Amino acid sequence: MRLVLVGPPGSGKGTQAELLVKRFHLTTIGTGAMFRDAIARGTDMGRAVRPLIQQGLLVPDPTVNDVVAELFRGPNRPERFVMDGYPRTYAQAVAFDALLRQEFLALDAVVNLSIADDEVVRRIGGRWCCSDPNCGVCFHVAARPPKVAGRCDVCGSPLIQREDDKEETIRRRLGEFHKNTDDLLLHYRKQGLVDDIDATQHKDAIYANILAALQRRRPDEFK
Ligand code: AMP
Hints:
The chain has 223 residues and is α/β, with parallel strands linked by helices. It is 48% helix and 15% strand. The chain contains 8 helices and 8 strands. Helix 4 packs parallel to helix 5 (90-102).
């Protein structure tokens, strides 16, 4: 099984990736995690991408494409995988197509977790987390309210809203996401690879719908 997972922040992409990895024994290829690792190890590439990532900007296409190509051309190239966070732009998708062709690998599906922007804002914008970095437990004003407003249930420290979780920041990230993803999805739609999954449902229902879509494409993986 070879999948690309697409979805805005707050769509539950990470959760679904984890479930799919377990079910089909896949390797997760997360470019964000690869960059964070390079930054932690202090490599040349890590030093180059660090300021971009800190500002929430995308790493230039050639850099990301090189990192992914190196992985697929290496001795431990993944055969069964779920792509999490790559390709993120149309140019990356074109480069990835060429790379997979060279490696004689074909994608089975592009799973598109679709959710309205307002729902994402409601989900992420309602998240408040413990200000004590040793605790860090998160609550949600609607889905998981703390027992005492503004206080952590676990350690009693004040709850704060992360910069990333503020409405203005979320809207900006969603704007970026649509700017890049609409063309990317169109590219994959033309290849008949996209499965649109309603990501407003409970995570179990989302997972069941993904499995149903994948079973139509790869019944052999369900025997
Ligand atoms: P993520 O963990 O996927 O949210 O990625 C964290 C950061 O890494 C992003 O905000 C980007 O700066 C960078 N990044 C990860 N994947 C890509 C990609 N495919 N294209 C460009 N930048 C990326």
